[in-house]
Structures are given as C-alpha cells and as structure tokens.
Write a sequence for this structure.
C-alpha cells in the first residue's frame, strides 16, 4: 500500500473516535485561515481547509460560525502552529503538530505524555530529516496519463504520482500543491479531490514485533491525540 493509505486510515480513525476533537481542530484552522481574508474564493488556504472539513463531515455550523467569528475580530484570539520532534519506544520517531494559542501549555502537555509513555523530546531537525514533507491530492475517474498531461501543460512539477486501486495520487512539494490543484481543476470540469493533504511521510518505516513495546507505542499515540492542542501526529511505525 502507498503513502496515501496511511493518511486515509489515520483520518478515518480520528473521525470515528474523536469527533469533538476533530471539530475543535477544524474550528481553529478555519478561524485562523479566515482572519486574513474570510472569502474562500480568494483565500486558497481557507478554501482548502473548508473543503477538507467537509470531507471529514464537519457540520456547516462549525465552518460558518468560525468564519463569522474571524470577520468580527475573534476577541483577540490567535493560533500558531508549532511542531515537536520525538523518539518513541522501539526505535520509533514522531513529529507532533499543534495548533495553539498558548505554546507553553502545549509543550508542557506534550512533555507530560512523553514522561508517562517513555518518549523523549528531540532537537529540531533530529527527526524531521527522516521524513518527506509533501502535499498530495487524490483523484478518481481519471487515469495517470491524463493527470500527468494536465500537470505538464500547466508547467507544474509533481514529486511523484502513484495509483492506489481506483485513485491517482499526486505528490508535490508543499509550495506547489495549490498550483497542482488549479491545473487539475482547469483541465477537468467539476473535479473532486478525494484527498487533499499536507503531510509528513517517513522515508523508512519500522514494524514493532514486541507486543509490550507495541502497546507502549499505541498508548503514546492515543495520549498525544487526546491533547487538545495536538492536531496531527506523524510517525514511522507500520500499524
């Protein structure tokens, strides 16, 4: 299975098990994106977040309420994205992404989880160099040749293209993701993006065979995802 499978699996698990947490994350992302420009037609970042929220079945009320809050100034609320790198059990590595209005709170809560689960904070860059940071979109009802031709005609470079079952997945550098989407939207009327992500992908993955170590790792992931400020956890373990 390709890299896209891991993103879909993580997304589905989070939607099923932690809906209220999911809605909270999207509320913050939508509000923050809308602060600079609340019009999704001219704000690519906001449009992308809204489209992703809809795919995750986030209620329209959550989306509209946070756009309206941004229009009104949001009572001084401001969120920043911070990322922490870590070493976990059995040679695992992690990148933890937080969206927070209090970085001191975020790092304290993440470190508390590390202390309980035997993980260790790593210095910036110590883990991330082992990952690819890429944008990706997934499209159905079009073949690889059609997709590649549309990108070439628009002078958009793809980092990689792979096919998973009935879906073509295009990987790009992060800064090229919007250009790739616009090229495909221009080439194919009413195109639907089944996947639209910016994610970290481990260059090499590991399998934890020891059951005790595997349980430690799963407990670490579950506790991190329960932290309110944590929006994504990326790792190198095959689960």
């Amino acid at each position: 299975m390709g890299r896209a499978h891991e993103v879909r699996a993580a997304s589905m698990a989070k939607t099923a098990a932690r809906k209220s947490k999911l809605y909270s994350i999207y509320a913050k992302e939508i509000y923050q994106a809308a602060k600079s420009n609340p019009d999704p037609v001219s704000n690519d970042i906001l449009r992308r977040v809204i489209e992703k929220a809809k795919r995750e079945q986030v209620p329209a009320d959550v989306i509209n309420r946070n756009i309206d809050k941004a229009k009104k100034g949001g009572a001084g609320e401001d969120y920043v994205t911070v990322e922490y790198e870590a070493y976990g059990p059995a040679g695992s590595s992690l990148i933890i992404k937080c969206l927070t209005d209090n970085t001191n709170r975020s790092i304290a809560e993440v470190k508390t989880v590390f202390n309980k689960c035997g993980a260790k904070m790593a210095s910036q860059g110590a883990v991330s160099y082992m990952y690819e940071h890429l944008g990706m979109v997934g499209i159905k009802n079009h073949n690889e040749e059609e997709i590649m031709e549309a990108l070439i005609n628009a002078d958009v470079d793809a980092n990689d293209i792979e096919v998973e079952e009935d879906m073509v997945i295009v990987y790009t550098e992060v800064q090229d993701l919007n250009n790739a989407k616009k090229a495909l939207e221009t080439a194919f009327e009413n195109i639907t993006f089944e996947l639209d992500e910016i994610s970290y992908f481990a260059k090499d993955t590991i399998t934890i065979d020891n059951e005790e170590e595997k349980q430690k790792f799963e407990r670490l992931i579950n506790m991190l995802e329960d932290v309110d400020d944590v929006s994504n956890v990326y790792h190198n373990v095959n689960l």
Observations:
- Residues 80-129+204-235 form a domain with the Alpha-Beta Plaits fold (CATH 3.30.70.980).
